[in-house]
Amino acid sequence: MHKDNKQRVIACVAVRMKSTRLFQKAFADINGQPMLLRLISRLKKSSYLDGIVICTSSNPDDDVLLKFADQVGVQAIAGSEDDVLQRFIAAADRYNADSVIRVTGDNPLTCPVTIDRMILHHLATQADYTRTNGLPLGVTSEVMTRSMLKRLSEMVPDLLWRTYMLFVAFEPTVFKCEVLEPEAELKRAHYSVSVDTPEDLELVKKIFQECENKEMGPSLSDIVNFIDNNPDVRTMSDETPIKLPRGQTISFRQCLNWLDHQAELSKRVKGECQSSQPYWDEHLGPLGLRRFLQAESKKN
């Protein structure tokens, strides 16, 4: 399958210099290269991306990211400190993108092969939103159309929720959502290679070191095999808290169950995005997530 060249798809990398647990995380050294450069280098290996945009904030502390983008040959925009969704819309508008890949700067092992697979499926199915479930945290991403992002912006007035885009965007009763599944041998939802702590950074360094002589860098198989063969590597437990706005959390198990539920819902509605139930509550946020969590609590 070939990508329709009339459809422009860009990667939007949400990144800031602010980091509480790992100082200046974006430029943390990974075997001689800053983490953000490692990520950009992997994104450049995608066959179907038409551009890469660093989406940072207008805070003066983040000016260094704009200069870095210019140095490594990618685009950049500076927008609201708190409104990640609006930064993505601004990037899509400025660079005339039909769809964007949502990538975060703390995922230097984001997989370009997975990105390409999602782009092709997203365009072929004319989806609003496309994701891959079941892979390790930190290797995958999400594809969203520019028109969907703008509609989402109108539906989500709360700035705090506009940062937690997964929980507001992956809603098959509102948007046409497509969900891909990985090969069985790569399905490791409890693995994580996202970088949030010094311990996470050390793990990622070891994985890159293991594959330093490979032109494409670590593949999904390399990542999975490394963690499989190193039982001392910490994985995500079912009880690991996943942050939501205003100090709320859900367990990692609840998050995985919700992702599976949304994937099944995507198949059932088959893109016929009609729901008589309200999407948003000013106090509770996305009501689809709330309804799911209430149903889960009744089972237990």
Structure description:
Helices cover 37% and strands 17% of the residues. The protein contains 10 helices and 13 strands. The chain has helices at 35-43, 63-72, 84-94, 112-125, 146-155, 165-169, 198-210, 220-228, 252-269, 287-299, and strands at residues 9-14, 29-30, 33-34, 51-57, 75-79, 99-104, 129-132, 142-145, 177-180, 241-243, 249-251, 280-281, 285-286. The strands form 4 sheets. A 7-stranded mixed beta sheet has the order 5-4-1-6-8-7-9, with helices on both faces. Strands 2-3 form a two-stranded antiparallel sheet. It has a two-stranded antiparallel ribbon with strand order 10-11. A hairpin with a 5-residue loop joins strand 10 and strand 11. The relative contact order is 0.13. The mean pLDDT is 93.
Summarize the structure in short:
With 300 residues, the protein is an alpha/beta fold. It has helices at residues 35-43, 63-72, 84-94, 112-125, 146-155, 165-169, 198-210, 220-228, 252-269, 287-299; strands spanning 9-14, 29-30, 33-34, 51-57, 75-79, 99-104, 129-132, 142-145, 177-180, 241-243, 249-251, 280-281, 285-286.
The CATH architecture name reads Alpha-Beta Complex
CATH topology: Spore Coat Polysaccharide Biosynthesis Protein SpsA, Chain A
Structural class: alpha/beta
Sequence of secondary-structure elements: EEEHEHEHEHEEHHEHHEEHEEH
Query: What is the average of the pLDDT values?
Result: 93
Query: What is the helix tally?
Result: 10
Q: Please, how many domains?
A: 1
Low-confidence stretches: none
